[in-house]
Amino acid sequence: xxxxxxxxxxxxxxxxxxxxxxxxxxxxxxxxxxxxxxxxxxxxxxxxxxxxxxxxxxxxxxxxxxxxxxxxxxxxxxxxxxxxxxxxxxxxxxxxxxxxxxxxxxxxxxxxxxxxxxxxxxxxxxxxxxxxxxxxxxxxxxxxxxxxxxxxxxxxxxxxxxxxxxxxxxxxxxxxxxxxxxxxxxxxxxxxxxxxxxxxxxxxxxxxxxxxxxxxxxxxxxxxxxxxxxxxxxxx
Length: 236
Ligand code: PXP
Hints:
single chain, 236 residues, alpha/beta, eight-stranded parallel β-barrel, 11 helices, 18% strand, binds pyridoxine-5'-phosphate
């Protein structure tokens, strides 16, 4: 499996003092040196961590792929079209959340989401939809015109009882199968860490994992290059 490293939390640390350090772009360069396959950054509507200048600099600097996580708001779509990431991952966004909660409801927002997909794809930006592991959301993603889905692994990551863990893993495996059958590229992410990632790597067909918080948290102790290398070894 490939690994995309989400560097939002490097910017979160910078924003704690509203200064210039640590620089998420410098972190991205080290993640690439460690061998990651893509860099993920979420340009939130409130710019609480990653800002417009970060994404502009990421676009100019990184050598792998830039995967921009984003909502479907008009301002953000316009910003993405200017930045031209390799991929846009559409996520639901809510001002009060501490992190992305739940997947996109593609079924209920088909027109808005398919319009955003058309606009981004017409600029050669690949589009991924971040969805819960539910068959109707996978099918709706295909219908909306996305080429990629990212299955939200948050419920799996939060499950504590063996039975719940199995139930969530099985939902992810079924959703991945349906996605692959529909010809979609299937990725996964959210809440994955050095322990729980093994359950996900046992599912065949998932192409890329997008992981942020656990890698950046571990890098405080191990350094970001080692933290990425250790996660890469598990993903591969
Ligand atoms: N994938 C998506 C679509 C996300 O929104 C996030 C969180 O920004 C992640 C992956 C990474 O989640 P985590 O930081 O929990 O690893």
